[in-house]
Amino acid sequence: MKQRAPLTLAAVAAALAAITGIASLTAAPAASPADGKRAAGSRMPVEQSVLVCPAPSSSDIAETTYTSITPGAAGGKGAARLATKDGKTVLEPKEPGKPVGATASGAEAPALTGTASGSLAPGWTAQQTTKVAVGQARGLLGVGCTSPGTDFWFPGVSTAKGRQDYIHLTNPDDTVAEVDIKLYGPDGLLKDKPGSPDRVFQVDPHSTARVLLSPLVPDTQVADVTAHVTTGSGRIGASAQISEDGVGADWLPASTDPAGSLVLPGIPADATSVRLVAYAPGQDDADLRLRLAGPGGTLTPAGNEQLHVKAGMTASVDLKDVTRGEPGSLLLTPADPKKPVPVVAAVRVVRGSGTKQELGFVPATSPVGARATVADNRFDDKATVLALTAVGADAKVRVTASAGTEGGGPAVRELTVKAGTTQALSPPPAPTGGKGTYALTIETLSGGPVHASRTLTLPQDGVPMFTVQPFSDDHSTVAVPKPSQDLGVLFQGPAPEGQSWP
């Protein structure tokens, strides 16, 4: 048997940087224990992060607010910058813990890309929130800027009449990205017809593409569709922008990776319509048990106890006003715990009625993990609602409100969320004496896992305009074994798509 030479720390650093595009392991090592023995491994902060923000809106009356922050205590050297394609800086944080903001008007606001390094890299976060008061694109559209990747799932898009659904693709790198978009409906893959547009798109370096989904499948109108966005080469940031005639507009963030159990956190208490869309990407059908975790525990929606999802097909169910006046989170688990089948999912949420409706989306999310942040929260007591859901075990969490973009001091609150419940903080902690916008950071101290989202509501002429943003672990640190360890253990199993282990 051929022996494999142990990998060096430098080799691991290079490999992780190449694979994630965001990690560089050049920070000083942790201090040695008092007894002189070296720890089996340690976690070290990433030293570079990359973010991509899509172009906000095509409306001439759009008003967009940007907020960016790196959570944590001030100190250390670092740099961060979000800029336009032509190099104009829009946001430039100066130190951890202090958010910065900017605004833009009209349809000319472009997509942004940027990097953060040093002390500003671990957990770097940016958010854009756009308000369109009237017109076809009316609504409050919020989205967190994302790390570029190669694989994205968007259950909940549509090619139906009255819907204008776009996938925004932004390439932050110096090479062309080749992107493929596949659409799956209730009967499987939606096939294009002769003469229809190619679904493989070339996105030039440092450029963005805005792809309308309905022309990809001419004469095929499907209400509930799952879009799968992958790259054959390069990497991109991807987000889905939804507009529905007479209802509103918002962004649909990508669902978390396919999994047997999913949590869709923070469905607003006053939701008048909740529609679940799920897709099973593997070879097996999925039978899902549906439960709603509310303030007092979990319940099963009457008449919608389970959902059957055929392999390779999109399934949906109308849950109506399932929250019934109390905020809740939807829990999807295998009907047979011994037969988990990976799925992706999202819910379409409507608030209001008649001509005063507004649209939003809640995707399945990964746990908060060690730490997660959502920026652009407002000081109005009714504007921001923070929803926390504990799964599996009671969880103790710490919620930190940063200083505001226009001053003030941070605020901290610790609380326990009981297993199987959703706790809504309205208002959540806010900076003392602050103005502008601020960030909320959640840390899991024990128990859980914890899933969370933030709902921002900014009413306009009687319309409950809102947007929901999930919290996901910011992966601000990476595990680094001691130098004498065979670091090849980090690279067991299949490498990520398009990559290979050293």
Secondary structure elements and their pairing?
Elements lengths: L8 H12 L20 E5 L2 E6 L9 E7 L8 E6 L5 E3 L8 E6 L6 E7 L6 E8 L6 E6 L6 E7 L5 E9 L5 E9 L2 E2 L10 E4 L3 E6 L12 E9 L3 E8 L3 E5 L9 E6 L3 E9 L6 E9 L2 E3 L6 E4 L4 E7 L7 E7 L9 E8 L6 E6 L8 E6 L6 E7 L4 E7 L9 E7 L4 E4 L12 E10 L2 E8 L8 E6 L5 E5 L21
Antiparallel strand pairs: 1-36, 2-7, 3-6, 3-8, 4-5, 4-7, 8-9, 10-16, 11-15, 11-17, 12-13, 12-14, 12-16, 17-18, 19-25, 20-24, 20-26, 21-22, 21-23, 21-25, 26-27, 28-33, 29-32, 29-34, 30-31, 30-33, 34-35
Describe this structure in words.
The protein is mainly β and 502 residues long. It contains 1 helix and 36 strands. The longest helix has 12 residues, at 9-20. The radius of gyration is 22 Å and the shape is globular. Mean pLDDT is 88; it is low at 1-40 and 495-502.
Which key features would you list for this structure?
5-stranded antiparallel beta sheet, globular, single chain, disordered N terminus, 502 residues, mainly beta
- Number of helical segments? 1
Radius of gyration: 22 Å
* Beta strands, count: 36
Instruction: Bin the helical content.
Output: under 10%
Note the main sheet. Answer: 5 strands, antiparallel
Class based on secondary structure composition and strand pairing:
mainly beta
Unreliable stretches, pLDDT < 50, 5 or more residues? Answer: 1-40, 495-502
User: What is the percentage of strand-forming residues?
Assistant: over 45%
What global shape is seen?
globular
Q: Average pLDDT across residues?
A: 88
> What distance separates the N and C termini?
18 Å
